[in-house]
């Protein structure tokens, strides 16, 4: 899929600045003190995090002198708040959410792209008569209430719609032929169709909303340990290269 194109690291203005129960990564040596870095994932471990897990499993982080912990996310995990508070040094989110947080004075900044276009879509049943964004007026959509695409669509298409809080499940969708929900088009549709539903998508990039999925970091960490940040990104890129172009089995096994 196009979302799984090789990521591009973003070096930011001169200052660049495994799971909690995972075993030590391959390549770790006792005679070398490693710099600890915790990464807060945005969701449970899955192939969207493949480069991270491959780098951990193959020892690429350890090769760079890092002791990296990948902390799973989930429906109730607040990634931005966790990284801003310094409980993790790096997290995964969307570019727009991080930019908004930084504009409000929260000490975080984007450091690398994960997806060049975040794979977010509105998912509908295939026989739903709605075929375009301008037809969403008056509808109810299950989504993350804080998502910035919501005011964008309302303003661009001069529509209004209700938002019910995302529960990150597919049960409501399967039981209601008129249901519309936000999701990753590389994730939820697979499970919906496996459960017998036929779906169609309104992808947000087609609607004019362009955002990256990104890694972002705590600014204090970036300013205090710029070499560790550079080392992390080197290993991260190496992990994605190996996961996408080589054998992804080590990363998948660690997930």
Would you kindly provide a written description of the structure presented here, covering whatever features stand out?
The protein is α/β, with parallel strands linked by helices and 255 residues long. The chain is 31% helix and 21% strand. The chain has two domains: 2-117 and 211-254, D-Maltodextrin-Binding Protein, domain 2; 120-203, D-Maltodextrin-Binding Protein, domain 2. It has a five-stranded mixed beta sheet. The chain has a three-stranded antiparallel beta sheet with strand order 8-5-9, covered by helices on one side. It is globular, with a radius of gyration of 19 Å. The relative contact order is 0.24. Mean pLDDT is 90; it is low at 1-29.
Give the structure's gist in a few sentences.
The protein has 255 residues and is of the alpha/beta class. Helix content is 31%, strand content 21%.
Total E-strand runs: 10
The domain tally reads 2
Number of helices: 10
Class by SSE composition: alpha/beta
Q: Provide the low-confidence segments as ranges.
A: 1-29
Shape: globular
Whole-number average pLDDT? 90
Radius of gyration: 19 Å
At the fourth CATH level, what is the homologous superfamily of the largest domain? Periplasmic binding protein-like II
Helix content: 25-40%
Strand content: 15-25%
* CATH architecture assignment name of the largest domain: 3-Layer(aba) Sandwich
Q: Under the CATH scheme, which class of the largest domain?
A: Alpha Beta
């Amino acid at each position: 899929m196009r979302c799984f194109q090789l990521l591009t690291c973003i070096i930011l203005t001169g200052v660049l600045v495994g799971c909690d129960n995972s075993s030590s990564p391959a390549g770790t040596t006792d005679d070398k003190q490693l710099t600890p870095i915790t990464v807060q994932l945005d969701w449970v471990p899955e192939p969207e995090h493949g480069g991270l897990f491959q780098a951990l499993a193959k020892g690429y982080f350890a090769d760079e002198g890092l002791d990296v912990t990948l902390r799973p996310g989930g429906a109730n995990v607040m990634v931005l708040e966790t990284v801003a508070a310094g409980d993790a040094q790096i997290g995964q989110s969307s570019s727009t959410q991080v930019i908004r947080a930084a504009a409000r004075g929260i000490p975080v900044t984007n450091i690398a792209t994960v997806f060049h276009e975040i794979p977010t879509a509105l998912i509908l049943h295939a026989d739903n008569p709605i075929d375009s964004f301008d037809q969403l007026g008056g509808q109810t959509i299950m989504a993350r209430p804080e998502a910035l695409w919501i005011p964008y669509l309302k303003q661009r298409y001069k529509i209004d719609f209700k938002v019910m809080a995302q529960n990150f499940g597919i049960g409501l969708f399967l039981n209601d032929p008129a249901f519309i929900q936000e999701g990753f088009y590389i994730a939820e549709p697979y499970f919906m169709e496996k459960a017998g539903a036929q779906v169609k998508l309104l992808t947000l990039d087609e609607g004019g909303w362009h955002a990256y999925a990104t890694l972002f970091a705590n600014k204090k960490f970036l300013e205090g340990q710029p070499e560790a940040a550079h080392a992390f990104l080197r290993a991260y890129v190496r992990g994605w290269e190996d996961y996408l172009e080589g054998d992804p089995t080590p990363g998948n096994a660690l997930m």
